[in-house]
Specification:
alpha/beta; three-stranded antiparallel beta sheet; 37% helix
């Protein structure tokens, strides 16, 4: 090593992550998953019940959707309008209108690389430092992360497990301040599987109207419903003076998570959102456009039969897996669970006192190391106690039964140290 190299080596500083990430977490792909990867590298076979990814569990995308994308590949080689393919936005507008969302125009629709990208964009375009957004607890953690990254302050309102995980309206009202800019609804809910009835949504819409805040509704699971449950879009119930932002996509309903295709619809009082929409236009233009080939799936997908219904029907695969998983969970001492009405997740409660659980991430790690089953701890969804966890019920019934048997065996002798 030369004298220059030695001197330069001594003076070189370390590179640390941005302080903006200090309060950001996404434990669905966090430390427990990192440990799972180490175990896989060591030759262990891990059952990944941590993420809603249908493809690894044998779910296939509808063939006509894949063929439509394939046929249009040569048309998808260049940039397009930053808001998205016109034919796709027309189909989204028609779908929105069919769900009762009034006066949706293509100019206020933005197609993105999945709903995740659009959540981040929606927060970046709206929030100033210290602005507050009301978010459910438990939540899909990207919402909280996006608020923090945008300089805002996430304020979590409680969803009540004893009331089928519906939002606690009184808790929401107590937490509104002069800094509150928006109210987030996740319906059907991830991680609880709750589907909110019309009367609950009317209360939420009324709160948004009373306080002139934006009503955000994440509806990515709107077609994954069980037992005749109906989904109502929040924007269809909102006052015309309320600005609504509805987020949806094809990742879950059409089993194409890897294609990354979602959309964001502005409705209601868009006249009052001129500045906000200007910001969204800027952000959409900065990323040029979203994945073009996948956008060719939107029109045929929204105009075709609801293929996911095959899996959620009384004889469907998802319905069967939910029913088997739910019954097996109930039989495990120290575990209780509210039956999900939508999506494909269980969010069971574990008796933390019985198992002496103080750290639910450690519980997830201990289960992983002993049984090779990967779950996500409840605090990873911004739940305030270490007494819940999330598992997906995407595996075949026999695989799911084996996983829950492993959980039962693990808990028989488990006491956290």
């Amino acid at each position: 090593m030369t004298q220059y190299q030695e001197s330069n080596s001594k003076n070189m500083g370390s590179f640390k992550k941005s302080s903006k990430l200090d309060h950001v977490c996404y434990d669905i792909r966090g430390p427990v998953l990192d440990e799972a990867k180490k175990l896989e590298d060591a030759g262990k076979e891990i059952l990944k019940l941590n993420i809603g990814n249908p493809a690894p569990f044998g779910f296939e995308a509808p063939k006509d959707i894949v063929e439509q994308i394939s046929r249009n590949l040569t048309k998808a080689e260049g940039y397009i309008d930053s808001k998205g393919l016109l034919s796709a936005r027309v189909a989204i507008a028609d779908y929105s209108n069919s769900r009762g969302i009034q006066n949706v125009g293509v100019e206020n629709i933005y197609v993105g690389n999945g709903v995740s990208e659009l959540i981040v964009m929606a927060m970046q375009g709206l929030l100033n430092e210290g602005d507050e957004i009301l978010i459910p607890a438990p939540d899909y953690p990207l919402w909280t992360a996006a608020v923090v990254l945008a300089g805002g302050r996430p304020v979590h309102y409680i969803c009540d497990e004893s009331s089928d995980w519906h939002p606690d309206i009184l808790d929401i009202r107590k937490k509104i301040t002069h800094r509150t800019k928006g109210l987030v609804i996740i319906n059907p809910n991830n991680p609880t599987g709750a589907v909110y009835p019309k009367e609950v949504l009317l209360h939420l819409a009324q709160i948004a109207a009373e306080h002139s805040i934006v009503l955000f509704s994440d509806e990515i699971y709107d077609r994954i419903l069980y037992d005749g449950t109906e989904h109502v879009s929040a924007a269809s119930l909102a006052d015309s003076n309320t600005l609504c932002v509805t987020l949806n996509g094809l990742s879950k309903s059409h089993l194409i998570t890897g294609y990354r295709v979602g959309w964001m619809v502005f409705s209601g009082n868009t006249a009052a959102a001129e500045g906000y929409l200007e910001g969204i236009n800027m952000l959409a233009s900065m990323r040029l456009c979203s994945n073009v080939p996948a956008q060719y799936a939107i029109e045929p997908a929204l105009k075709s039969d609801n293929t996911i219904r095959w899996h959620t029907s009384p004889d469907g695969r998802l319905k069967g897996q939910r029913d088997v998983g739910y019954e097996l969970l109930k039989r495990i001492p120290g575990i209780s669970c509210t039956k999900p009405r939508g999506a494909f997740y269980f969010f069971p409660k574990i008796d933390a006192e019985m198992f002496d659980i103080k750290d639910d991430e450690k519980f997830a790690l201990d289960l992983l190391k002993e049984e090779n089953v990967l779950i996500v701890q409840g605090t990873g969804f911004n739940w305030f106690k270490p007494d819940h966890f999330r598992i997906v019920f995407l595996p075949e019934q026999s695989v799911l039964a084996k996983a829950l048997e492993s959980l039962k065996n693990f808990l028989e002798g488990y006491r956290q140290r």
